[in-house]
TrEMBL record:
CDD domains: RHH_NikR_HicB-like. It comes from the Bacteria. InterPro entries: Arc_rbn_hlx_hlx, RHH_8, Ribbon_hlx_hlx. Pfam families: RHH_8. GO terms for biological process: regulation of DNA-templated transcription. This is Nickel-responsive regulator. PANTHER family: BLL4998 PROTEIN (PTHR36215:SF1).
Amino acid sequence: MSVHELRRKSGDSSEKITINLGVVDLGQIDLLVQEGFYSNRTDLIRTAIRNQLSNHAEVVRETVSRKAFVLGLEHYSRADLEALQSAGETLQIQVLGMASIADDVSPELARATIESVVVLGALHASKAVKAALADRIH
């Protein structure tokens, strides 16, 4: 299993979200974009989110440490899970960022080796594996 720091870029390390904003807030965002403070709405929203995350960085660090989260990207390969199964061990996945389970992991192997899944961010796994672990994903 490997841990990688997530970089702020498009591609596999980003997730699309949808938010609802009031028309007045949206109008103010458009005004700031029009006045050249931001290149577009997304730029302003990303900047605002990063500022808030920066403001709360210490709380995030303390909570990650206290709850024993892996911070970043954690990938679980079929070989990783087969090694756990051979050793008679199970896995508790706790990730703040992205956890990915390889596409060649069968639902049966996932159920046999993954005891629980807590992901604050994104969980990438096949539909079959997600369905097999549905009662273990919190």
